[in-house]
Amino acid sequence: MSQTDGNCFHQRDSIERLIGLERERLVDGLAAVFPDADRVQRRDDVKAMTIRGGLSAAAARLATIDPIAYARTRNHLDGAVTGLSPWIRHGVLSLAEVRDRALALVQDPREAAKLISELGWRDYWRQVHLAIGDRIHDDIEPPAAAARGASADRMPEDVLDAATGMRCIDSFVRRLHDQGWLHNHERMWLASWLVHVRRVRWQAGADWFLEHLLDADPASNHLSWQWIAGTFSAKPYIFNRENIESHSGGVHCSPCPLLGRCDVEGDYGLLSERLFLTGTPIQRPALRIRPAGPSAMAAGRSLPSKDGTAIVWLTLDSVSDASPAARANPDATRVFVVDPAWLARERPTLKRLAFLFECLAEVPRLEVHVGDPATLLAARARALGCERICLAETPCPAVGRAAAALQGTVRIEQVAWPEFCDRGTVRDLGRFSRYWSQVEASALRPTR
User: Which string of b and e fits 324-351 if b means at least 16 CB within 10 Å?
Assistant: First the structure.
């Protein structure tokens, strides 16, 4: 049965019975309700995932971060990475909260600067997404280098089967499918190899990642793929075998049957000649992206009252009672809507849904529905006698369209997240370096 079949999804009781189930029963229940999500990965692998959704799991992970070790080792596969991205993506942890924890662990803010700058990339992607909306799915600028050969629109079957023969690539694919998380370097290597060596259009790879990653955020995901492809960066990102060996301790290359003759052998000059048409540099105008500005972020925002007359709308960016909208309305009913359009667009796998429902399990006064968000929220507001629907700020265009559709029947209030940085002077989002040079000083200060 298709995920968009209304007969399958408009059974609120069957959905809400999943909330609070332990992992094994939750995975089986999700597979029964969302059969299209039960693909690729083995259910036993989903049940055995070590990453758990929810605020308590996020707090435990946050307590383990080490900003100084992170700065020193983050590029290595066994480095002291934070692993916080799944909870940040879903609004269980805010960027400001992670920044504040990092600063509390060091004597000098500069010792946490590298970790905070990586949080800055996520903030930057969100601002770009807010500014350009659905255009994150298209080339933001012409490719920085002309590729040799045509691009494919589909993921190659040998890649999806983890049967390329390259030990590193096949390892990355299996872990993506089974666990839903990869080290940032593994993501970069896999994306670069797909786009520049296998000549797969970046959109196909980005959509594939979005299906599987527990931290699947369209802004960070699609814009990172564009950065790799050179359609949102000054040059495409490529790597060679030496790069993999130096950051992985040789665990992939030494036993690989293709050692010495794989796709990424050679220095960067040789690889560039092999992958790109060289000669006259491509002339591209300087990229300028105007920020959406405070007025767009604050559209419809007013100061929420702390009573039960509002509905708190939990979106994919805020599936927690840590949502600023929930904190501003502690007694209000919380509503999360599984949108069939999202299911069809992103095709989330069981591991993604399991993490999501584990986050929702810790939310009090929660209702979960499946259907069109605008229609369902309007109906619940009427039934509960609520004049306001409050949600945490989000750059998601689909949420923005649903909020606009609701404006005629109920007041929409967006509530700001704790401030990560002061963007008041930012006039251009064309490059991260420009953005960060203007906001870094404020990002290195703790929340007041």
Answer: bbbebbeebbbbbbbbbebbeebbbbbb
- Which two tokens mark 296? 């767009």
Q: What is the CA radius of gyration of the chain?
A: 22
Q: Alpha-carbon distance 225 to 215, whole Å? A: 15
Domain spans of the chain, in order of start:
141-275
HSE-up (13 A, CA, CB side) for residue 15 = 22
List the Cα angle 315/316/320 in 5-degree steps. Answer: 75
- Tens of pLDDT along 152-168? 999 999 999 999 999 99
Percentage helix, strand, coil, to 5, in the chain?
Answer: 50, 5, 45
Residues 6+ apart with CB under 8 A from 315: 336, 391, 392, 394, 396, 399
CA trace torsion 81, 83, 85, 90 (10° rounding):
-160
CA 45/CA 310 separation, integer angstroms: 40
φ, ψ (nearest 5 deg) of residue 226: -65, -35
Give the closest residue to 91 by CA, choosing from 322, 301, 304: 322
Q: Which residues contact residue 6 at a Cβ distance below 8 angstroms, ignoring those fewer than 6 apart?
A: 340, 371
- From the list 220, 213, 217, 154, the residue with the least C-alpha distance to 349 is 213
Beta strand 366-370 pairing with 310-314: unpaired
pTM over 0.90: yes
CATH number of 141-275: 1.10.579.10
CB contact set of 118 (below 8 Å; sequence gap of 6+): 74
Angle at 286 between CA 285 and CA 287, to 5 degrees: 110
Mean per-residue pLDDT, 385-407: 96
- pLDDT of the residue at 4: 39
Q: Is 417 exposed, middle or buried (0-12, 13-18, 19+ CB in 10 A)?
A: buried
CA distance 240 to 255: 17
Give which of 181, 178, 212 is closest to 45, Cα–Cα. Answer: 178
Whether 197 has a pLDDT exceeding 70, the answer reads yes
3-class DSSP assignment, residue 413:
strand
